């Protein structure tokens, strides 16, 4: 079942453009300095470009891939002009993103053969995890889907209460227990409730602690195992939420969570308040996990489906 056919309406595109404004301005200001006084792409320009990409939080490994691709093009055309660098960068970054984000989705998509479709959301505290869950619930509900939320981050009372605020705001049911309850028990109850209500989508919040990877791994594994007593192939999606404004720290979080559990999709939040939009490119490339959603504003509708064509268009506009 496909939702929101026209997600990249003029209004949505304007929101994306605005959300990436800081990243774009900083990047092109640095790029202009990198090619100042140069008429063709040479070793000095490539060295400067490498610094610009790393400074934009694209990440060292991904930066080296991009530089290698551009070097290959320079080798073919000895007189590649610096005025063409913008176009070449756009093409090579699009190519990199295409390798991981296979589709060009413009819609929130839920597989029609999975009901209820269970999403387990992971990520450290403070990255916008609960807000992302609330915005997802809103999008799905607007599309006419029945949504149930589960507050399985029982480590902090604030996490449960914050999710309750979102559930009330969006007007969807929330399954919760007391702080300190077994997270797997909450997940079990949520799936039972969702099945009994004939829910289309169930979204489970989980604790955001990384102080001990083994504990995290054991907890997430237990939650999965218990959920499968109700829905055999749950969870259908493990969504890792990352704060784009933290730059390289987001890479480290992605590394830790992918070691602790199988992550199937990513949401990168808070891109509107930062000049670190390049982190989307690097994380997508390094972890080979599709970026599914990006947060480009505070509004309830400012969580967008990540579309690589629209993203690159906005970044290089």
Write up this protein.
β7, α10 and β8 form a beta-alpha-beta unit. It is elongated and about 65 Å long. It has 317 residues and is α/β, with parallel strands linked by helices. It has helices at 10-19, 21-35, 43-55, 60-76, 85-100, 129-142, 157-170, 183-196, 213-227, 248-260, 279-287, 308-315, and strands at residues 2-3, 108-109, 117-122, 147-152, 174-175, 201-206, 237-243, 265-269, 291-295, 303-305. Helices cover 50% and strands 14% of the residues. The longest helix has 17 residues, at 60-76. The protein is built from 12 helices and 10 strands.
Secondary structure elements and pairings:
Layout: E1 2-3, H1 10-19, H2 21-35, H3 43-55, H4 60-76, H5 85-100, E2 108-109, E3 117-122, H6 129-142, E4 147-152, H7 157-170, E5 174-175, H8 183-196, E6 201-206, H9 213-227, E7 237-243, H10 248-260, E8 265-269, H11 279-287, E9 291-295, E10 303-305, H12 308-315
Parallel strand pairs: 3-6, 3-7, 4-5, 4-6, 7-8, 8-9
Antiparallel strand pairs: 1-2, 9-10
Helix pairs in contact: 2-3, 3-4, 4-11, 5-12, 6-7, 8-9, 9-10, 10-11
Helix content: 40-55%
For the terminal residues, how far apart are their CA atoms?
A: 32 Å
Strand content: 5-15%
Uncertain stretches = 1-8
How would you characterize the largest beta sheet?
Answer: 8 strands, mixed
Number of helices: 12
For the CA atoms, what is the radius of gyration?
Answer: 21 Å
What overall form do the CA principal axes indicate?
Answer: elongated
Given the helix and strand composition, which structural class is it? alpha/beta
The neighbouring-strand order within the major sheet is 5-4-6-3-7-8-9-10
Q: Give the overall pLDDT as a whole number.
A: 86
SS elements, strand count? 10
Oligomer: single chain
Give the H and E element order. Answer: EHHHHHEEHEHEHEHEHEHEEH
